[in-house]
Amino acid sequence: MGKVATLFNVYANPGNEQLVSSEIKAKLKPNSIQTEDIAFGIKVIKVMFIHEDSEGSEKLEEKLRAIPEANNVEVSEESLIS
Q1: How many structural domains compose the chain?
Q2: pLDDT tens across 20-50, in order?
Q3: How far is CA 17 from CA 14, 34, 73, 74, in A?
Q4: How far apart are CA 63 and CA 49, in angstroms?
Q5: Under a CB-based contact definition with an 8 Å cutoff, are residues 70 and 61 in contact?
Q6: Which of 1, 40, 59, 82 has a CA 20 to 30 Å removed from the CA of 13?
Q7: What's the DSSP call for residue 1?
């Protein structure tokens, strides 16, 4: 099996982006994380994980959804890297 890069978009309750970002870093140890402005004060937290293909991204998505201040989580991109 190969490795997969999965990029998630995480939407937090307004004003709680830093809290959600810190919790993701502490609990899930992503490969990268950044916050981007979308429009009209709405921000998205972009979180990337590199994991084994056999692990799937569903478990990561469930863990992200379990964060209390995260409103919505969606897979933005997923690609086989090796």
Answers
A1: 1
A2: 999 999 999 999 999 999 988 889 999 999 9
A3: 7, 10, 13, 16
A4: 12
A5: no
A6: 59
A7: -
- CATH number of the domain within which 72 lies: 3.30.70.60
User: Measured between alpha carbons, how far is residue 80 from residues 55, 59, 61, 72 in Å?
Assistant: 13, 17, 17, 24
Can you tell me the distance from the alpha carbon of 6 to that of 21, in angstroms, rounded to the nearest whole number? Answer: 17
> Is pLDDT larger for residue 14 or for residue 7?
7
- DSSP β-bridge partners for residue 48: 7, 32
Show the tokens assigned to 34. Answer: 């950044």
Which helix (H) or strand (E) segment holds residue 27: the answer is helix 17-28
Site of tokens 């899930």? 28
